[in-house]
User: What shape does this take?
Amino acid sequence: MTNSPVVPEVDLWGSGRQVGHLRVPQSRDDSGWGTIQVPIVVVANGTGPTVLLTAGNHGDEYEGQVTLLDLARTLRPEEVQGRVILLPAMHYPACAAGKRLSPLDGRDFNRCFPGDPFGGFALSLAHFVDSVLLPICDYQMDLHSGGTGMDIVPSAVGHILDHAGMQARTLAMADAFGAPVTLLLKEVNAGPTLLAAAENRGIVALSSELGGGGRLSPAALTITKRGVRNVLRHAGVLEGLPEVGEYGPSRRMTVPDLAHYVFAPADGIWEAAHPLGHTVQADGPAGLLHRIEDPVAPPIALSYKATGLLWCVRHVGRVKAGDPVAVIARDM
Ligand SMILES: [Zn+2]
Assistant: This one.
């Protein structure tokens, strides 16, 4: 039994296609018994594994949201063996606002796991996902993109795990998803993420980075739509084998440490030396940081500290001291 105050309008154990909301309490001055309605769709048939697909963990990342809306409309119960649970706009207030962080309290929803049933909207929703949805799942994929600030080579993202069997199952799921890149990393502050919550419950789980720049990329959307159906095929929920993209099998890469990041040492305007996806060299020029405070001083020249694929670039021109402006991935 859960002590969650979140009430699902759908029967998680029912068959067919069900469309409803998770009703999450959110008291306001003008509505003491107010709730926030988080859309949920369950498509289930027969017996088989359960796959939880989530998007809108961050509200300004759009490929996953549109892919799950498409799946919610088109996935037919009779083609499913098992259960697919869709949360296309999981952190609904941020999705409705088109923002990464919550307009309610400024929280990053992906730093709220495993949550707290009575900790307010974000923590109580995270607690429901962790304590009610994850325990009935076999596979979980949380769809992210680069958001407003970053642009990223479309990638499935997994953690470097201590358990060899779980690592192999994670890589097999990522191979099936079939993004141009599969990136494995030891994440900074991974503990409070949904991906870590799923791993802690022994579920085969992936995240992703599928574009960014605060826009919906048609190319990344194609990769995401194919990838999500590939995951359902890999799980055995849909018939058939995963489809390989026109770029071939996914390239396995890693960002092993912070030396693969370039950070801005001061506030300024970032002028990148290379486009996303370029192969770059250690000690080569990464770009120039322009300082409006001192018009006649030369810009600050930054260089890469690692050789590899320019996997992530700063999209927004204005940066603050400490912001990453580039991330390099290398082949595993
Ligand atoms: Zn995200």
User: Anything to note?
Assistant: DSSP finds six helices and 18 strands in the chain. The mean pLDDT is 96. The longest strand covers residues 35-45.
